[in-house]
Design a protein that fits this description.
Elements lengths: L3 H17 L20 H4 L16 E9 L5 E8 L5 H12 L1 H4 L2 H4 L7 E9 L2 E9 L5 E3 L6 E3 L2 E5 L5 E7 L2 E2 L6 E2 L3 E11 L6 E4 L11 E19 L4 E19 L10 E7 L4 E7 L8 E7 L5 E5 L2 E4 L2 E3 L5 E3 L1 E7 L5 E15 L2 E12 L5 E11 L7 H9 L2 E2 L10
Parallel strand pairs: 4-26
Antiparallel strand pairs: 1-2, 1-14, 2-3, 3-4, 5-6, 6-7, 7-8, 8-11, 9-10, 11-13, 12-13, 13-14, 15-16, 15-25, 16-17, 17-18, 19-22, 20-21, 22-23, 23-24, 24-25
Length: 422
């Protein structure tokens, strides 16, 4: 169905951005300590840990994750990267120096930085099935914003803080299409995301290590920014060649936002890493499990967020993975994960995560749809069927075949592309 009004507004935004000469191609953007929409400095301080660190070391990365699904399985997942941590070339360049002190002193290695690999990934779902996906890498210097600010832009993707304390998310990208010769990209189509994430709880909720520090000094850190949000807005898939809207989906549902970062490659001294989340009517749950490798021991956590002061954080819970399955790219991931432990106050928590299906997969990750069963002391058990869990295993990208497949999944946006005019 042709929606001419939507299509004309999209074309108008591109033209206006091109005339303004902005990096994004969708109007100018400049970070500010108080928020673009006038967020007071005192309230902006609540989100300091969610701010952009602008790291410069080789192999460093930072990723902001946004996710929302409605009851029917329609939803969106957006990741914005300063340092695309799974890009095979970035991994290879940075890991070489860490493994060889002689090469570490060379100028070529010292010039490797996250600023060379800014990017974004966008995925659309209907009925818990993927319907569109984009993984775009932007030219060096595509990131703009103030250090430490929780609002910034990377390519045509913007995160803003508003006066009411909500996050505004705007994301755009070229979608990939699967073919017999492998994935290829359609630059005559575009995915658009315009959403508002209204946090249920004020400020960053928890900051914790994703795994013990590596021998190279990296400290992978997970910032659980807004585990429960009310999400509203719209996602669209546009076809410029036919001037049609292929998908126009309004969203009004619960979702969440988190972000993680590290100062060295995520692959060093690391096994597979799983991060999951579930949202209820007024509560949220997060968990993670990191496999041990070499000098790094296995680690994990459970985070429970409820109304008022109800918070439970369990570090290093006992764990078991009953069995696992292999995804489309021969990657193992948990099919049944059990975490059990107590917080500092002695409150017991037991979490059982069951894999219900695969939402999407890639050579470096599997995103699963899960059901969870949560027991906290004598409280009544909680169940949720729309939970998600992402498992990363970047070690596999050292294999030439999978490395080549990963590179084909990533579209390098040219510097003069109309998607985000410089």
């Amino acid at each position: 169905m042709i929606k001419q009004e939507t299509w004309q507004s999209y074309l108008r935004a591109v033209r206006e951005g091109s005339r303004a000469g902005s990096r994004s191609g969708f109007g100018s953007f400049a970070g500010s300590a108080t928020g673009l929409a006038g967020l007071p400095p005192a309230r902006a301080a609540h989100w300091k840990e969610d701010g952009w660190r602008q790291q410069t070391t080789a192999g460093a990365y930072e990723c902001w994750h946004f996710e929302a699904f409605d009851a029917s399985g329609g939803g969106v997942v957006v990741d914005i990267f300063d340092g695309m941590y799974f890009h095979p070339q970035y991994l290879r360049q940075s890991a070489t120096g860490y493994r060889s002190p002689r090469k570490r002193s060379g100028s070529a290695w010292q010039e490797v930085s996250p600023a060379l690999y800014p990017g974004a990934a966008i995925s659309f779902f209907q009925g818990y099935r993927p319907v569109a996906r984009a993984i775009n890498l932007y030219p060096p210097g595509a990131a703009r914003g103030e250090p430490g600010s929780a609002e910034f832009s990377i390519g045509p993707n913007h995160i803003t803080l508003r006066q009411d304390g909500s996050f505004g998310l705007v994301a755009r990208g070229y979608p990939m299409v699967a073919g017999l010769a492998g994935p290829h990209y359609r630059t005559d189509q575009c995915l658009l995301v315009e959403l508002t994430f209204q946090p249920t709880f004020t400020g960053v909720q928890h900051v914790q290590p994703l795994r013990p520090a590596s021998l190279q000094g990296g400290h992978p850190t997970w910032v659980i920014s807004a585990p429960h949000c009310q999400v509203s807005g719209r996602i669209q898939h546009l076809d410029s060649l036919r001037e049609t809207v292929l998908l126009d989906m309004p969203l009004c549902c619960a979702g969440g936002h988190d972000h993680f970062y590290g100062e060295s490659p995520l692959t060093l001294d690391a096994g597979a890493l799983s991060r999951g989340r579930a949202v209820g009517s007024d509560w949220a749950l997060t968990w993670h499990h990191a496999e041990g490798r070499r000098s790094a021991a296995a680690s994990g956590s459970i985070g429970i967020f409820g109304p008022g002061a109800e918070r439970i954080f369990v570090d290093q819970p006992r764990w078991s993975i009953r069995h696992s399955r292999r995804g489309d790219y021969w990657m193992r991931y948990p099919a049944l994960l059990k975490l059990q432990g107590a917080d500092a106050a002695g409150r017991e928590a037991e979490l059982l995560v069951r894999r219900e299906g695969v939402l999407e997969s890639s050579p470096w990750s599997v995103l699963s749809r899960c059901s969870i069963e949560l027991r906290c002391g004598r409280s009544a058990p909680r169940w949720a069927a729309g939970a998600t869990m992402e498992t990363l295993d970047l070690r596999r990208l050292a294999w030439p075949i999978l490395s080549d497949l990963a590179l084909r999944c990533i579209y390098r946006v040219p510097a003069d592309d109309p998607l985000w005019r410089q």
